[in-house]
Amino acid sequence: MPTSLPQESLLKEHCYIDGHWADAISERRYPVVNPANGDVLAEVPDCSAQDTEQAVEKAHQAFLTWSNTTSKHRSQILRKWFDLIIEHQQAIAELMTQECGKPLFESLGEVNYGASFVEWFSEEAKRAYGDIIPAPFADRKILVQKQPVGVCSAITPWNFPLAMITRKCAPAIASGCTVVVKPAEATPLTALALAELAERAGLPSGVFNVVTASHGKDVGEVLSTHPLIRKISFTGSTGVGKLLLKQSAESVKRVSMELGGNAPFIVFDDADMDKAIEGAMVSKYRNTGQTCVCANRFIVHEDVYETFTQRLAERSAALVVGNGMDEGVQQGPLINMAAVEKVDSLVKDAVSKGGKVLTGGQPHELGGTFYQPTVLTQLSRDMKIAQEEIFGPVCPVFKFRTEEEAIEIANDTPYGLAAYFYSNDQSRVWRVASKLDYGMIGINEGIISTELAPFGGMKESGMGREGSKYGLDEYLEVKYLCMGGLDV
To answer: Which residues span the domain enclosing 299?
Structure first.
């Protein structure tokens, strides 16, 4: 085993089903590769539909017991899980950086962010309140109670290999559901480390299961069609999300979908330019631009366009690119060569149609999966980069004249996950916020994710909300009890 990996006790090379570390039934395995240097970190089971069906059945057996435990008991176990994640945050962060590439300081931030959902829902577990509704007749009582949906499946992406799991699984487990997780092919090790810590926290066998696979189609089909699965939560591309929706419709499952984005970042002429630049940098370049809520299109008023683009280009050119485990690195690699090729093709398309490169614009001299932080200007809306999610360190900057034009450009997309805008005019803040068709809006702020607020999108960016008090309701059924014949 490579000595660069953290504590071997957290490095697992088996899937986790019903409280047991197991191989795939086929005994097939696949390698997990460090995108920064191509090193093989470990090999994990390449599970099939048959393995997944077994996990679902075990989760169902566990649900029959777990759903009848008290909310206080579930709360205590989740709290222990949270404590263990925080205790091992350095080891988890090192593991995460090596399998997904993000700088170590960002991985540490994600561990704390992801753990916050476990902490939050350990508290919310005790607050799944029902109601007593005034009845129309004296001999009746109307009660509303909430109960767990059932076995849930979670299909998670590689760019946040811990937080996307805890954001889905913590509320599910808190509500009394059991879960089967299919982590991204590229980043299963963080998920398996979470399973190890869940076991140490005392989570019973079958409540939290992790199925690893190199190709998710067969596993995803089981998780979206199996009759024992009552809820599916997916974070990923809109195309895959639509397929899972179709598959889950046959058995009318509950669904949460957090899909693609095309986030606008609007800078009005009355914006605080220092704050706008800082917000642009943290929003765009977190995880090397590989986040679903990062700024995808910068839409800047013509009066401040030159100032903004020049300052953004200077800051972008100064970013330190390299292996996320190296000290001082601010930008890691893209996840694979396909990602590099996609980003480069978007830049080339823009340049071929008249776009200007202020800085960057090509694969990094480090080679491999590294790409230069890039700022593009003189752009038009017919370019691919205006409509497609970039998922890389590229800032396309568009120009606008009026408030109405900025809103129209921002909403000109089928997506509606996150949006950002900067203005010091309070009347404008309320006008623009109400007209942007997005589920989350950062106003004079570039980082908006927190366990306290509902995370989710509109239009083709998905449905349902994760985090906050609303996140627990996604895993609860509302049951109405009419109690008649009472002698009162």
So the answer is: 263-452
